[in-house]
Structures are given as C-alpha cells and as structure tokens.
C-alpha cells in the first residue's frame, strides 16, 4: 500500500471544509478565487480517496480520517496508456465550422490539431465560442488561426503515470491532455497524438479503486 500526497490546493480545500462544513463547491471556489470547473479534479480526488464526503444538496464535509489515505499500489502506478481514450484530431487547415462539428459529433471538449501528422496545437470549446461571438466567418477561418500553438500545449506520454497526468491537469486547469509519442522529424522532436487523458478517465480509475 502507498499513501497519497495531496497538493497544496487540495490541502487548502480540506482546511476550508473543516472550518466551514458543510460547504458547497461554489463557496469553496469563491474562497479560493477559482471557478468550479477548476476544482472538479481536486474534489473528485479528495472524495474518492475518502478525505471528503459529498452530501447531496448540502455540500462537502470532512470525513475525519487521517490526512493520508492508503490506496492500492496498482492505482498509483497505473500508466496513462492504460486509461487513455481516443483523441479527436483535425488538420490545421480545417475550417472552424467543420472543427466545431467534429467537436460535438465526438462529444469532446478539446480538439487537437495536426500538420503533416504531428501535433501543432489545440482548441477548446472556449476558443470556438470566442470565434462564434466575434465577427469572423467560421466557414472561412481555419482552425489553425484560433488554436493554441506548440510549444504551449501541455501533454503526457503513454508511460507517464496517471498521478502525474492528474497533477498536470490540476496545475494547468485544463479538462484533458493529449497523449503523444515522440518521433524525430527534420532533426527535431515532433509528437504524434495517440490518445487523450481527461478528468473523466482519471475519476473512473479512482471510482474503480474505491469500489474495490
């Protein structure tokens, strides 16, 4: 058995719950000056590990357990490749309108953009919303214009641990990360997208571990 070491933000969430319990996620987010979405992964980990209890229509309460909860070694050492799901990928020259269709047809929150088969950027629902409410014609603007470009994309590799992926998701406040495989192209490292790991993937793993 191994113990979880909680992040400073998770420790602060536990402190707030101890002091103000029962407390809703909205109130926790307000006290930390964050959005509820930014706290989802933290609250999931704290609930699944048994540190907090979620009371419907009431809020979160502290479970009065020790500050470190033991979970199976297999859960902590699980690799990203074991839980990753299929990534939605489009080409850099895909028009924003067509990219939005791909986003919703695949029920995804983020698209990863490739050029010549390698990762060059990412675009989220927020990026598409900004374009939609602007003056741009979505049928004429390529997704490459609105995406966040490499090297500003946070990613993980197949053999990274799920815990390290979860930490990146929390630290960078994103919903999912591309899972990549490094290749050498034109004497430099490039990255092929082989999947994605999301908050949902990680939460499912902790639910399964808790159930066992």
UniProtKB/TrEMBL annotation:
TM segment ranges: none
Keyword Transmembrane helix: no
KW Repeat (keyword) present: yes
Domain of life according to the entry: Bacteria
SUPFAM superfamilies listed in its UniProt record: CBS-domain pair (SSF54631), Winged helix' DNA-binding domain (SSF46785)
Keyword vocabulary terms for this entry: CBS domain, Repeat
Domain CBS: residue ranges: 147-212
Pfam families according to UniProt: CBS (PF00571), HTH_11 (PF08279)
Protein name as catalogued: CBS domain protein
Annotated source species: Clostridium bornimense
Organism lineage: Bacteria, Bacillati, Bacillota, Clostridia, Eubacteriales
């Amino acid at each position: 058995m191994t113990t979880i070491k909680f992040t400073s933000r998770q420790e602060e969430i536990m402190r707030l719950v101890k002091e103000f319990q029962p407390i809703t996620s909205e109130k926790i987010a307000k006290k930390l000056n964050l959005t509820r979405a930014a706290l989802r992964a933290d609250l999931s980990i704290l609930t699944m590990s048994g540190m907090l209890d979620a009371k419907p229509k009431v809020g979160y309460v502290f479970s009065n357990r020790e500050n470190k909860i033991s979970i199976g070694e297999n859960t902590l050492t699980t690799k990203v490749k074991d839980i990753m799901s299929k990534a939605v990928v489009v080409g850099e020259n895909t028009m924003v309108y067509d990219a939005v269709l791909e986003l919703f047809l695949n029920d995804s929150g983020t698209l990863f953009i490739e050029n010549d088969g390698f990762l060059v950027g990412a675009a989220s629902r927020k990026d598409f919303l900004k374009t939609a409410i602007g003056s741009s014609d979505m049928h004429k603007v390529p997704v490459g214009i609105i995406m966040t470009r490499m090297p500003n994309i946070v990613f993980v590799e197949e053999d990274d641990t799920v815990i390290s992926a979860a930490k990146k998701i929390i630290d960078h406040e994103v919903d999912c990360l591309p899972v990549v495989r490094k290749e050498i192209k034109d004497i430099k490292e490039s990255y092929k997208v082989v999947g994605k790991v999301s908050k949902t993937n990680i939460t499912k793993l902790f639910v399964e571990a808790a159930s066992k």
